[in-house]
Amino acid sequence: MDKILIVDDNPSVCQALTILLELYDYQVVAVGSPKEALPIIMYQRISLVILDMNFTQDTTSGEEGKAAFYQIRDLQPDLPVILLTAWTDLTTAIELVKNGAADYLAKPWDDERLLVTINNLIELNDVQRKSQVLTQQQRERDQHNKSANLCGLIFASTAMQRLVDMTIQVAKSHVNVLITGPNGAGKEKIAEILHENSPRADKPLIKVNVGALPVELIEAELFGAEAGAYTGANKKRIGRFEAADGGTLLLDEIGNLSLSGQMKLLRVLQTGEFERLGSNQTLTVDVRVISATNADLAGAIANNTFREDLFYRLNVIQLELLPLNQRKDDIEPLIEYFTQSEKVIPEATRQALQLHDWPGNVRELENACQRANLLSKSTEWQAEDFGLTPIDLASYEQIKPAEHLTKARVEQAINDHQWVISRAAKSLGLSRQALYRRMEKFGITK
């Protein structure tokens, strides 16, 4: 609840303002002099000050209010201050507004105007404060990421920034990581960032696509095999675990591993020990395992096709990579990267790119960019260049707010803008009231 400080030596004014503001759910503190007000500003969280300009009987110069205003500014430079004036000459009030006062109101004030002014000032101050915090966080992230190896990852969305921050933080440990997300979203790139920013960066990163191997060869691929261990094994084969010793092993599409392979993998994760197929010799390795999957492993556990104990061994930390249609701020920088072109994206093309669902994610976008490079004949990118249907902007503006907003999209916008509803609404093309209605409809609460 926002707390408002009233500074006025007239008890009737303080009482009237207190009753009015409390009716609108503001918390109110009222004092009779600047001397009483300054400690409150120092030690309490005040959202706004309503400051009278005169405190000595028969004084109308405004000098007392002026001095109090500058004392408040020294303590809290960004704290909104509304001046209350009760005389005809407004020169001093205007001077203070020029020097940072939020507004001035004449006594007797208009309740409606006062409430609107207070609401707007508090909301604006909240936005500015959060923006300052985010800017500082961004500076810290930029400095942090500047020394990190992002392996050429291209992104602009808040969702990807959060994932990258967490990835770099997790990279410094030796724990196993499970990367989840749809095909083509970039799970392998996240695995590369994990490895390159880890203490194992000077050791090998070995990748194996479990889903691309025949079931009968998966165990030999992972653990190796002696000559004659199976048909066609004419010589000893070194497995991926041995090859990754000291480094990192990426197991892509881990959900396709057979139950017998899962049992052996579990043993390696628990003890670091395994045997090659056809051998009784126990080998020991030190490997960090990164797993990736687009499968529903919880469902596989329920269906007894994936071991629950293995899942918890792999999933010490989970990094969830969102599909491209939930981080659409990444689309344009990715297009610029894939096409290596500075062609302009006109609004109709931009809307077509935003409306497309991108079921193939970044991989589909990369293919679309290759197509565009080959087929584009214009100085600007057209929707057809990417294999998309052109958008009629006039028609789109009429249907945009109501037709294309899912609960996930609304939640993403709200989270991306740190629950600043006015900004989230603007990004969705809605009014604040319309966004509140959709939040109520979808049951979205903070």
Q: How would you portray this structure in words?
A:
InterPro entries: AAA+_ATPase (IPR003593), AAA_lid_NorR (IPR058031), CheY-like_superfamily (IPR011006), Homeodomain-like_sf (IPR009057), HTH_Fis (IPR002197), P-loop_NTPase (IPR027417), Sig_transdc_resp-reg_receiver (IPR001789), Sigma_54_int (IPR002078). Residues 3-122 form the Response regulatory domain. Keywords: ATP-binding, DNA-binding, Nucleotide-binding, Phosphoprotein, Transcription, Transcription regulation. This is DNA-binding NtrC family response regulator. By secondary structure, the chain is α/β, with parallel strands linked by helices. It has 4 domains: 3-126, Rossmann fold; 158-322, P-loop containing nucleotide triphosphate hydrolases (Rossmann fold); 328-393, Helicase, Ruva Protein, domain 3, CATH 1.10.8; 405-446, Orthogonal Bundle (Arc Repressor Mutant, subunit A), CATH 1.10.10. The protein contains 19 helices and 12 strands. The strands form 3 sheets. It has a 5-stranded parallel sheet, sandwiched between helices. Strands 7-8-11-6-12 form a 5-stranded parallel sheet. The longest helix has 36 residues, at 111-146. The protein is elongated and about 105 Å long.
